[in-house]
Amino acid sequence: MARRSHNSADRAMPKPVTVSVDAMGGDAGPAPIVAGMAWSAAKNPDISFIVFGNSETLEKLVSKRSVLAGRCEVRHAAGVVTMDTKPSQAMRNGKGTSMWEAIDAVKSGDAQVCVSCGNTGALMAMSMLRLRKIPGINRPAIACLWPSRNPGGFNVMLDAGADIRADAEDLLQYALMGSSYARVGLGLETPRVGLLNVGTEEHKGRAELKLAHDMIADASKSAPFEFIGYVEGGDLPSDRVDVIVTDGFTGNVALKTGEGTAKLISELLKQAFNYSALSRFAALLALPSLKRLRKRIDPRRVNGGVFLGLNGSVIKSHGSADETGVSAAIKLAFELGQVDFPARVAARVASLSSPVQGDGPDTGQAYGTSK
Amino acid sequence: MARRSHNSADRAMPKPVTVSVDAMGGDAGPAPIVAGMAWSAAKNPDISFIVFGNSETLEKLVSKRSVLAGRCEVRHAAGVVTMDTKPSQAMRNGKGTSMWEAIDAVKSGDAQVCVSCGNTGALMAMSMLRLRKIPGINRPAIACLWPSRNPGGFNVMLDAGADIRADAEDLLQYALMGSSYARVGLGLETPRVGLLNVGTEEHKGRAELKLAHDMIADASKSAPFEFIGYVEGGDLPSDRVDVIVTDGFTGNVALKTGEGTAKLISELLKQAFNYSALSRFAALLALPSLKRLRKRIDPRRVNGGVFLGLNGSVIKSHGSADETGVSAAIKLAFELGQVDFPARVAARVASLSSPVQGDGPDTGQAYGTSK
């Protein structure tokens, strides 16, 4: 279908992107983060880095990776935001931490996108403080990719946990921001948007969802997305929707439930194949098949929650991400950096007050001049 | 651990249980429902049925199953509640439908438990109308079993979708009712209860959750369950909790997300094994292992959402349940029928106003005389 095809123009001429990296946020310290940077650098000549953290440690790690030579600036940051740091503490005392400085590199224009494996709440609070919300946006959101039956292999879900509540107006903004992200992240011209609810009949659900339903339906008339109405939890991996909109509480529970279910099944599969000598032999033969499956649902391949609604791009990588996961987040950062993503989202949100016929900067026609 | 051991006394002397069955509610009509009844009857001599629906159709189906002879009364009900029926319509016009009459058989005492594969909203609305809420209960809930890493293989989650909201008082009642259900359904003396939230730190989450947290912690001091505090979506299958408490909106999204994820993985697993001649051969050898896995997470094995908080036991089976699924729901009905489950829940809720030291009827000591 033409309307859901890739915007090949978006990919035509890659431009250089500098990614600022908070190297101190991950569970396993800076080593897997620098390894992920090196991996990305080897695959993509148009990417360079500014990395923040303990400069002595980082210089050592970076100097071991020849592929990073001349493409990775180390900047010292003494402080570290821990996983226990409350968002309010992070905002008051965060200056000088690797997280704060990595965000500030986007604010100053030294980098186009920031990647951190750190504490989500602190990262969002600091990002809001330093980058500020796009005019017209009430609550920023975190968008994540969800393995699906669609040809591209993924759907977008938001909010994955930036805020614990959302009113109808917020959900409408999530629909706009999420479809902008699907155009860039999934290459879809006219993403299909669904609103997460407990039943597909229109008489079910909470009052704010009914209001949001009507507001999104209205907006879809003048915006480049198709609104398919309510969807249910079972539709998150479905091929009848591309962007699933929900509040951050529900979205976070859904995300962790999906990850938890996948993990349980993978453990049980291992147990099942470890049951007898025959089943262990079968597992050996089945290994390529199991690897194909794993590759398809590997959470490391879809690593990276994108913060939407800020004047700058920030990507939250899993705290436990290894080099594959970090590299996936950096790849996403590169794609967002290609198109000046925050400007697209801002234009889309602004278009709500003065609707235009799908020719705003996020349809892939005007972005080249939008910066 | 002794405190989590099975109440073997509960299983000592089975007493006869009559299950009233709404035969017209399922997606595939009455045939798989009668087949499931026959399956259960063959496995359990202490079970008998009253089945409601088109008597001509049902007499034919029942007469073909010799195991049901003398153990299954057919009662004619002309009306059928369809999947599109709104709960309000069902309450106004439901009299004479197979669903209404099946519920009424529990009200009249002809049966101890009702099983229906029909429309959840209509079934809950009618059940509330006919059986009434237990004194002190504000919102009834639907409890479901969730495949888990616990020795018994399952956790309890509620509310799976009876209502779309719940305040702190409701969540406390869910904790009490859910732990009563875990004692009967999972045979645990002191179930561990967790409150679903987006973070395990106590500073996160919605205001009503903080209040519920404190209320449940207080109640756990005098009730036979252990409160472990907040849990996240990833803990639904975990072995550090037995009962997960949440509102019906979040619970329903989580349930359908979990089912949807399991279904996606199972499809991808099939694709992976269908990739080449070698992988198809491997699949053949792996078949017993895959069957073991399937048995472990097969939703048909955990079929049956139990309605909690009513003066009578009602079980909602999946609309698409086949005979295995229907039989699983009937097995659950038999277990609830063994212990006069609603009386246990009522005693537990009543004990909140006058706390007792874990010796109420739902600890498995007094149920024999409670009816």
Strand content of chain A: 15-25%
Instruction: Give the name of the CATH architecture of the domain at 1-132 and 310-338 in chain A.
Output: 3-Layer(aba) Sandwich
What does the overall shape of chain A look like?
A: globular
State the share of residues found in helices of chain A, binned by percent: 40-55%
What is the chain-wise order of helices and strands of chain A?
A: EHEHEHHEHEEHEHEEHHEEHH
The tally of helices of chain A reads 11
Quaternary status of these chains? homodimer
Taking the sheet with the most strands of chain A, its summary is: 11 strands, mixed
**Strands in their spatial order, largest beta sheet of chain A:** 3-2-1-4-11-10-5-6-9-7-8
Q: How many beta-strand elements of chain A?
A: 11
Structural class of chain A: alpha/beta
What integer value in Å does the Rg of chain A equal? 21 Å
Largest interface: A-B, 64 and 64 residues
Q: What is the residue-mean pLDDT of chain A, rounded to a whole number? A: 87
Distance between the terminal alpha carbons of chain A, to the nearest Å? Answer: 31 Å
Relevant CATH superfamily of the domain at 1-132 and 310-338 in chain A: Isopropylmalate Dehydrogenase
Uncertain regions of chain A: pLDDT < 50 for 5+ in a row? 1-10, 355-371
- CATH domain class name of the domain at 1-132 and 310-338 in chain A: Alpha Beta
CATH topology of the domain at 1-132 and 310-338 in chain A: Isopropylmalate Dehydrogenase
